[in-house]
Specification:
There is one protein chain. The chain contains seven helices and four strands. With about 190 residues, the protein is α+β, with helices and mostly antiparallel strands. The protein has two domains: about 70 residues, Glutaredoxin; about 100 residues, Glutathione S-transferase Yfyf (Class Pi), Chain A, domain 2 (Up-down Bundle), CATH 1.20.1050. The protein is globular and about 50 Å long. This is Glutathione S-transferase. Pfam families: GST_N_3. It comes from Algimonas ampicilliniresistens.
Amino acid sequence: MKLYGSLTSPFVRKCRITAIETQLADRLDFVTINVLAGETSHPNPLRMVPAFETDAGEIIVDSRVICEFLASAGSHLSTPEGWSDSILLALADGMTDRAVSITLERRRPKSEQSPGWVTHCETSIRQTLPELARRLPQAFTPGAIALVCALAYLDLRHGSIDWRNGNDTLAGWYEQMSQRPSVIATEPPA
């Protein structure tokens, strides 16, 4: 098992403390990663820390989900049943965080905006889309709800990202889920 992050991140620290408390720290390799260095081999497609890799190679993101995994792992070294939606939820919420960050950055005075940060966030979103497509649920789970909202927000605020391009499976799934009455009833104004 590997935990990727920075020793100064409070979110990584939360995972490290949980690993110690669950007596899994001795089976955990810590890999230092700099999210702002432009590393393309980041294990988390969102390019955020922490990221966690099980011995089976499954990547788990979001400190809350990683800590829940560690707390339940015991002797498990692969992803336990039922974790797929939690992972989807973390990825979709992370992508939404990146998209909102772009929106807020672009609302700042032009002289204070960071084009590098916007590029970083857009890259994170583009790298996350294939991973989301790999995890599409058939049921309307919390993760599915978060994903529908994330994709709708990209349509609303960030059409230039063109998330459908090259993501046919994800686009088809979204079109199907967008027909649900709850999704239609909560559509934001243009």
